[in-house]
Write a structure and sequence with these properties.
homodimer, 336 residues, alpha/beta, Rossmann fold, 3 domains, six-stranded parallel sheet, DNA-binding
DNA sequence: TTGTACGCGTTATCAA
DNA sequence: TTGATAACGCGTACAA
């Protein structure tokens, strides 16, 4: 079955293609009666405008790209869901650009996709959003983009973020208020900006409570389950065990839970464990995990909205900060 | 910076645009020396062909669509990863079509995307692959597609699947061989074909071992953690508790683990638990989960490859069956 | 308020 | 082996 074109619609409605175009694009200056005739014709033919044709003819492709790199299935899924939801509202199509396993071909690939697909702009999520070389290259190409949680403001593009540092402080304060004093921290990958902020928040709050920095045991992890498990084993082998462990993300916290189970350490009676992100695992492990809810979906939704506004030429705020909140579940309690 | 076009390349190479086109598309009948000149020009200009233009002019868009609907973040992530990997190999771009939350607008939406984007074909994953009405509509539109794990072969399109029934039989046999006789089964959503196959495999193997069907307690779940938790609570409240529980997927098995922990039932000494899928959670829960590895990534990779062959007009096998394997972890053992 | 004619960057036809 | 030129389906000047 041949694809319906604007000519078919114009013929059926008895107008020129330009008028059909006007109706499609909600331009003013079309007589209501004419508009209705055209709309009826479009409906009858089940007409769908050709994106490639619009893209070629007009400057705009009505296509935007979402650029991401691994973090985790849940993170990617939430980011995508947020972006998809916003696009669906506005009739924009989303092009996904996964940079997983791309290595140093990343920049080249992203630029190629931009040129090939004619996307109108990009939403860039961490850690790619902190790739300065890419940002500079995109800027040189004149690409419009919005970044999620970058580690700088070197570029004038809008930024959407949450306050990782304040959130980490809040969680730390919560553990301190429960009565914990020896609190272990499992840090995330130092090349992720949010990891650094979370560690900073932890340290500052500890200091604010006058805790001796020596009783702060900070172990380095790499954001995955295994590294959380190993870091916790090291901490629990220590003579002065912590009574609480705060992991920089949920996956590592889930690893910490396993390490405690292995050693027969009861959670939360003998050891409190807290995570960060509020991903799916937080509700699946036993005991369920106290954590910080990171509004990933909302951040992607907001970033996508900003990008679309930007493309339309609207003014948008340079920084959008979204709220987090603590989710208290079963893995934390006062020390024995 | 203006986008480079085929004219720029042609001018620099001192040939016509048609020749550049020939080189790009690996058509034969171009003198090697000419080809090299053109390739050098393309490289020098960092030329990227315009997808919309190719799509309009030629019949092909070099774009394929991946259609999916929720299942889970991990499932979607793996499917995407497989499809992306295959596309990357072949210079094809992937368009994602999430049908989550689309309800009865699903068919309309998918058809609209096909018409608008001019994708050359679709890879359709379950449960959408079993949506007969959609399949019929796509067929009527003459759309090329490959289905993953559909529940029928009503349509002649190629199918990629794994043998859920045999896998479930294998897991059941494993539990029986360990010495279990009272085995509980947590069934998945009956509207998912694979759920029905897994239940069938469980039942057949039990029967093959001459187990009295009354000692088969089958509880209905809906594929999520919570339903696995509740189903297990019901089973464990029973006077004749099972000594092993086989859940139709990992999420429900993770729920079963929590239920056992809540009641102080030791895993695996007092209760063995097995899952299905080998998703990320299987390695994160404690104890780690014995499960069946479902080759989701490979299935998507294969399906994408088949689709691309199909688009090229090649012959492809009607059914591609991929292998599974059992992953023995810590959640199963002989009964006490 | 509506229509005509041209151009967007490719591929395809056919001639050279 | 190559090239001129006409599509592809739509947006945009500009004219009516």
């Amino acid at each position: 079955m041949a694809r319906k074109t604007i000519d078919d619609v114009a013929a059926l409605a008895g107008v020129s293609i330009k008028t059909v175009s006007r109706v499609m694009n909600f331009e003013k200056g079309v007589r209501p009666a004419t508009r209705e005739r055209v709309e009826a014709a479009m409906a009858e033919l089940n007409y769908q405008p050709s994106l490639p044709a619009r893209s070629l003819a007009g400057g705009r492709s009505n296509l935007i790209g979402l650029v991401y790199e691994n973090p985790s299935a849940n993170y990617v899924f939430n980011v995508q869901s947020g972006a998809i939801a916003k696009c669906r509202d506005l009739g924009i199509r989303l092009f996904l650009q996964s940079c997983n396993d791309l290595g140093d071909r990343l920049i080249e690939e992203v630029l190629a996709v931009v040129d090939q697909t004619h996307v109108d702009g990009l939403v860039i999520t961490p850690p790619v959003s902190a790739n300065h070389e890419l940002i500079r290259s995109l800027d040189a190409r004149g690409v419009t983009f919005v970044r999620m949680a970058p580690d700088d403001f070197i570029h004038g593009s809008p930024v959407v973020e949450m306050d990782d540092e304040a959130a980490a402080r809040e969680m730390t304060a919560y553990l301190l208020a429960l009565g914990h004093r020896r609190i272990g921290f499992i840090a995330g990958r130092p090349d992720h900006y949010s990891s650094r902020l979370r560690l900073k928040g932890f340290r500052e709050e500890m200091r604010a409570w006058g805790i001796d920095p020596d009783s702060e045991c900070v172990e380095q992890g790499v954001n995955d389950h295994q590294s959380g498990l190993e870091a916790t084993r090291r901490m629990l082998a220590n003579s002065s065990r912590p009574t609480a462990i705060f992991a920089s993300n949920d996956d590592m916290a889930a690893g910490a839970i396993v390490a405690a189970h292995e050693l027969g350490v009861d959670i939360p009676d003998q050891l409190s464990i807290a995570g960060f992100d509020d991903t799916q695992v937080a509700g699946i492990v036993w005991p369920t995990l106290t954590t910080i809810h990171q509004p990933v979906y909302d951040m992607a939704f907001a970033a996508t909205g900003l990008l679309i506004d930007l493309i339309k030429g609207l003014e948008v705020p340079p920084v959008t900060k979204l709220g987090y909140h603590m989710v208290r579940r079963a893995s934390t309690a006062p020390p024995a």
